[in-house]
Design a protein that fits this description.
Shape: elongated
Order of helices and strands: HHHEEH
Strand order of the largest sheet: 1-2
Strand content: under 5%
Largest sheet: 2 strands, antiparallel
Distance between the termini: 30 Å
Radius of gyration: 19 Å
């Protein structure tokens, strides 16, 4: 099978799977609320000439809320990702997946590019 096709199909499957896991394991209401608060706090922080410790503390607390909300989804996706990357490594090996003139990319760089593109697209659609 064509290595490029393997990388594209794998990146679509993993992007879709990780997006579904993210949506199922995170509280979207809390995450969206924290993002809105972060925007407001960042605007306030930029308006200050000197850093305000109260605003900095609020930003820190808000970031911790977002990290806690996303930790479960990260843990649920990282272990399967290790298996997928190992499988791609053994399946494709050292073959160049993308050969366009002087640009020659292996499976890992190709996977990263395609998975970023497909993850962005899936999250925009979803």
């Amino acid at each position: 099978m064509n290595p490029l096709l393997i990388v594209i199909l794998t990146s679509i499957a993993v992007s879709l799977g990780s997006t579904i896991i993210y949506k199922l394991t995170t509280n979207q209401v809390v995450i969206k609320k924290a993002q809105k608060v972060m925007k407001i706090l960042n605007v306030k922080a930029k308006q200050q000439s000197l850093p305000d410790p109260k605003i900095q503390k609020q930003i820190w607390n808000n970031q911790m809320i977002m990290i806690k909300g996303q930790m479960v989804s990260m843990l649920c996706t990282i272990v399967p990702m290790l298996f997928v990357l190992g499988w791609l490594s053994t399946t494709i090996g050292t073959q160049k997946v993308i050969n366009i003139g002087f640009i020659k990319l292996g499976w890992f760089a190709s996977y990263v590019i395609f998975s970023m593109a497909f993850s962005w697209l899936i999250r925009k659609i979803w």
